[in-house]
């Protein structure tokens, strides 16, 4: 499945902007003659390079907007409107009045887990078709490297490969603050019980002990298709958003919440192909 299909309908003009790019280094390379046709020395000619200022030999472009992921203000949204000029745009920027940054953007189109990532659980997993496939009959966690506490947004793009069974509750959730000993965490999930689907912002103190912070019906039942879910938190509370094609539902919780520690994705009683995860946090 091509990830560019998932958010292409959001529209907008595009521009490559990366405040961290080393412009001086690029100019030095050009002046010295060793970067005349390849300013960032990544082996791709400037005329064909989708990010001239930052080396990206793989030329990843997840949203198909002809801006490489490493210099895209939102690698999964062709909308590059950046109202607060913080270098983060589109659906990646959940706070238009605060300066944020993309901490990491991780596609799963390779043949192995990226360095620092891990899977906890007994699921069947594999790579192919543009993502990481997870077939989970019990809670399974895709875990990212730990991060410091800060307001932010965790986004995940995935495809559900089968319609979940009506005999077990199916869940896919973006999560933060995962405790390896108790499996406690806060999660934004899309879940399906029988034929009814909802989205929920849930605090797990253990897997058997939960507190629903907010929930709302999900108009598109969790079944075969492409989804994006987003877990956001700041001083005023947490927000859980889910989208399938053109639908978008939101559940909110009033308690202040930050993204911290181990973040990632939880899958239970369903089969998914994970295309990407991304973490955005408030600038220090």
In percent, how helical is the residue content? Answer: under 10%
- Structural class, by secondary structure, is mainly beta
Spell out the CATH superfamily of the largest domain.
Exo-inulinase, domain 1
Shape: globular
Query: How far do the termini sit from each other?
Result: 36 Å
Total of helices: 1
**How many strands, which pairing sense, and closed or not: the largest β-sheet?**
8 strands, antiparallel
CATH class of the largest domain: Mainly Beta
Key words describing this protein structure:
single chain; 284 residues; mainly beta; Jelly Rolls; 2 domains; 8-stranded antiparallel β-sheet; 7-stranded antiparallel β-sheet; disordered N terminus
Structure description:
By secondary structure, the chain is mainly beta. The chain is built from one helix and 17 strands. It has one helix at residues 23-32, and strands at residues 100-107, 118-120, 124-128, 131-136, 140-143, 147-150, 152-160, 170-176, 185-193, 196-206, 209-217, 225-234, 237-244, 247-253, 259-261, 264-268, 270-282. The strands form three sheets. Strands 1, 3, 4, 7, 12, 13, 14 and 17 form an eight-stranded antiparallel beta sheet that branches. A seven-stranded antiparallel beta sheet has the order 2-5-16-8-9-10-11, with no helix packed on it. A hairpin with a 2-residue loop joins strand 3 (124-128) and strand 4. It is globular, with a radius of gyration of 19 Å.
């Amino acid at each position: 499945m091509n990830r560019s299909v998932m958010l292409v309908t959001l529209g907008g003009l595009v521009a490559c902007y990366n405040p961290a790019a080393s412009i001086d280094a690029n100019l030095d390379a050009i002046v010295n003659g060793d970067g005349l046709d390849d300013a960032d020395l990544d082996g791709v000619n400037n005329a064909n390079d989708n990010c001239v200022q930052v080396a990206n030999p793989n030329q990843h472009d997840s949203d198909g907007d002809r801006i490489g992921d490493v210099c895209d203000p939102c690698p999964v949204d062709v909308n590059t409107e950046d109202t607060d000029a913080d270098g983060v745009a589109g659906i990646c920027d959940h706070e238009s009045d605060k300066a944020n940054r993309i901490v990491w953007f991780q596609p799963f189109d390779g043949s192995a887990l990226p360095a620092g990532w891990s899977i906890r659980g007994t699921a069947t997993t594999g790579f192919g078709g543009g993502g990481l496939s997870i077939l989970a009959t019990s809670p399974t966690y895709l875990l990212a490297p730990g991060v410091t506490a800060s307001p932010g947004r965790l986004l995940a793009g995935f495809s559900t490969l089968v319609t979940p069974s009506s005999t077990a509750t199916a869940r896919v959730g973006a999560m933060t603050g995962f405790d390896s000993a108790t499996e406690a965490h806060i999660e934004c999930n899309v879940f399906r019980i029988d034929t009814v689907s909802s989205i929920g912002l849930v605090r797990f103190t253990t897997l058997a002990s939960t507190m629903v912070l907010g929930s709302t019906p999900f108009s598109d039942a969790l079944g075969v298709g492409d989804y994006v879910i987003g877990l956001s938190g700041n001083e005023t509370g947490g927000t859980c958003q889910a989208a399938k094609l053109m639908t978008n539902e939101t559940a909110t919780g009033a308690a202040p919440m930050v993204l911290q520690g181990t973040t990632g994705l939880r899958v239970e009683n369903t089969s998914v192909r994970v295309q990407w995860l991304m973490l955005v946090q408030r600038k220090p």
